[in-house]
Amino acid sequence: MRSEARSDVVTRFAPSPTGYLHIGGARTALFNWLFARGRGGKFLLRIEDTDRERSTPAATEAILKGLTWLGLDWDGDVVSQFERKDRHAEVAHEMLARGTAYKCFSTAAEIEAFREAEKARGVSYPVFLSPWRDADPSSHPDAPYVIRMKAPRTGETVIDDQVQGRVVIKNETLDDMIVLRSDGTPTYMLAVVVDDHDMGVTHVIRGDDHLNNAARQQMVYDAMGWTVPVWAHIPLIHGPDGKKLSKRHGATGLEEYQAMGYPASGMRNYLTRLGWAHGDMEIFTSEEAMRVFTLEGIGRAPARLDFKKLENTCGHHIAMTEDAALLHELEGYLAAAGQPGLTVQQRTRLVPAMAALKERAKTFPELLEKAQFALAERPIVPDEKAAASLDTVSRGILKSLTPRLQNASWTKDTLETILNEIAAENGIGFGKLAAPLRAALAGRSVTPSVFDMMLAIGRDETIARLSDAAA
User: Fold this and answer.
1) pLDDT band at residue 7, thresholds of 50, 70 and 90?
2) What confidence category does residue 51 fall into, taking pLDDT thresholds of 50, 70 and 90?
3) Which member of 99, 181, 184, 305 has the greatest number of CB atoms within 10 A?
4) What is the distance between the terminal CA atoms of the chain, rounded to a whole angstrom?
5) Phi first, then psi: what are they for 406, rounded to 5°?
6) Catalytic residue ranges
7) Is residue 435 domain-resident?
8) Where does the Aminoacyl-tRNA synthetase class I anticodon-binding domain lie (predicted)?
9) What would the DSSP string read from start to end of 207-248?
């Protein structure tokens, strides 16, 4: 197997802009990014937009947006495969000149007749043998033709894959594939190789659904005398039931995960571990992952999507993220989910509340639910359970509390001392006092600690809410 230890590492992600960025594609991009970044190499982005009917600018924008949200930066400009079609055709004609390709004038009807005859002889998967492969150019008719590559007819093609191991393909099963159509447009198989070569790609890391393509693409490298890149074909992602991931399993598009409220760092961590392992390492930063990521760590079996594990991973990352950065990403989530943004006042209250909130939330919707006290505007209307704690006695206690808070030092220790004194003066435990406080400050019976809420919303808002409830 080829060594992956190269100082000039160049990887690429080459999606087709025919729809959203699939989560499997996002993981492929992530593996390429980690591998290149961890070795001081380059990570390039190419949009394979040769299917003009299905490729759309909106899909391209969605791909770029998804990669940006996931935090995967690329080097240089985004390459359009379609815009390089003349270069692809140039290589096809160079193969003609080298004698590694030939003009084929066989018609669609002739090819179909050949295949039907082979099937009649009991050949299940007939390989078309063009009569023009070794024809004298002087016998060429003045008719439309395609350019076919001369594939070896005997022996084996070996793919030394960093993930799948040594893959051997019988050459007799490979036909002389078309590299340039009769209308002068290149085929995908040719375009991919030319682009990867011209972009200096050293490692092709992609889904194992491309493994069969590698044998044919390797022949193009050989035909042109180019260096074959290191191959690494990674297994696809399956749903929890072990079947190929689809809509029935839940979200499959990367943008859906942002709109569902998963933090990008947690998503990166989870996708990195989805089919790759390094000892018992579970929670890590991208910098840590770059240092230890290797192709050998990728398993051969399909990985299974596990939403519970995703949530747990994201919970760790929410807790690890600095408050200001978390607030910024939270606003990104609100925009992606089509929800109203935060007001200046809400931002001001959320930052000091983060420390109390982020340890208990696994997603941004959970964090916002727990942060409701900081987002709410007066008057606070308690729900039914919270309202039950605001009886005449508790309202009187709240009324006696507000003067004590007017000039108090606004620290947790001071607030704790004052509230415990009030509870003792009224012959109740702190728990009995906490219930009406929660109702007054948040309108709910389950909230962060009353001290955390008071510190987050500040003295004036705390006293105003207590006064409202005491009235």
Assistant:
1) low
2) confident
3) 305
4) 78
5) -55, -45
6) 247
7) yes
8) 342-469
9) EGGGHHHHHHHHHHHHHHTPPPPEEEEEPPEE-TTSSBP-GG
- Domain containing 94 equals 87-180
Q: If you ran DSSP here, which 8-state letter would residue 107 be given?
A: -
β-bridge mates for residue 254, sequence order:
none
pLDDT by residue (tens digit) across 416-431?
999 999 999 999 999 8
CA torsion through residues 167, 172, 175, 176, sign: positive
Q: For residue 84, give the nearest of 8, 170, 193, 160 by alpha carbon.
A: 193
- Domain ends where: 180, 208, 225? 180
Q: Is 3's pLDDT higher than 70?
A: no
Rg (CA), the chain: 32
Tokens (6 digits) for 312 = 């747990």
Average pLDDT over residues 154-179: 95
- The C-alpha atoms of residue 24 and residue 236 are separated, in whole angstroms, by 7
Residue 379, in any domain of the structure: no
Q: Is the peptide bond before 141 cis (omega within 30 degrees of 0)?
A: no
Tokens encoding 305 = 């999507």
Final residue of a structural domain among 320, 335, 367: 320
- From CA 273, how far away is CA 255, in angstroms rounded? 20
Q: 247 labelled as ligand-binding? A: yes
Residues 182-198 have pLDDT tens digits of 999 999 999 999 999 99
Average pLDDT over residues 365-394: 94
- Residue 30 in 3-state DSSP? helix
Assessment of whether the complete model's pTM goes beyond 0.85: yes
Taking CA 260 as the corner, what is the angle to CA 63 and CA 44, rounded to the nearest 5 degrees? 20
Reported as type and span, the H/E element at residue 305 is none
Say if CB 80 and CB 88 are below 8 A apart: no
* Strand order, beta sheet including 203-207: 165-170, 156-161, 230-234, 203-207
